[in-house]
Design goal:
The protein has about 140 residues and is of the alpha/beta class. The chain has one domain (about 10-135): Roll (CBS-domain). The chain contains four helices and eight strands; from the N terminus they run ββαββαββαββα. The chain has helices spanning about 25-35, 55-60, 90-100, 120-135, and strands at about 15, 20, 40-45, 45-55, 80, 85, 105-110, 110-120. The protein has a four-stranded mixed sheet with strand order 1-8-7-6. Strands 2-3-4-5 form a four-stranded mixed sheet. The two termini are about 15 Å apart.
């Protein structure tokens, strides 16, 4: 008998750090550095707008004559991120992330951010599943 595929809720990071889209890019960079995160959900009035990555920030920093103190998050983030509901099965999320090469999935409930699932979470989930299901 096989075990059911768990939902993403089991392995997502709950209450992720987030930032308003009208915040400064410097504020976002400092938040990401302080908490050692690479994906920062972007919200506007509590609703998911997009995601900002450390790669986005590093790209902007590499441009000449660009001051990240003067830029806003909305100048740099990726809109319309990959979102799923907490009850979505992991295999569905993992397949989409792999096919589209997404670094994360934002977990939403009633249009509000409730979690994030990154490729690091995917590795931790794989490790846990291997340890518990193959022993």
């Amino acid at each position: 008998m096989t075990k059911p595929i768990p939902s993403i809720m089991k392995y997502m990071t709950t209450t992720p750090y987030q930032i308003e889209k009208d915040a400064s890019l410097l504020e976002a960079a400092e938040l990401m550095q302080k908490y050692d995160i690479r994906h920062l959900p972007v919200v506007f009035q509590g609703k998911i707008e997009g995601v900002l990555t450390s790669t986005d920030i590093n790209l902007i920093r590499s441009l000449k004559n660009v001051d990240i103190e003067k830029l806003k998050v909305y100048d740099c983030f990726t809109p319309n991120p990959f979102t799923v509901k907490p009850e979505t099965h992991m295999d569905v999320v993992l397949a989409e992330m792999a096919e589209k090469k997404y670094g994360c999935a934002l977990i939403e409930d009633n249009q509000h951010l409730v979690g994030i699932f990154t490729w690091i979470d995917a590795l931790k989930a794989t490790q846990h599943l291997l340890e518990t299901r193959l022993k």
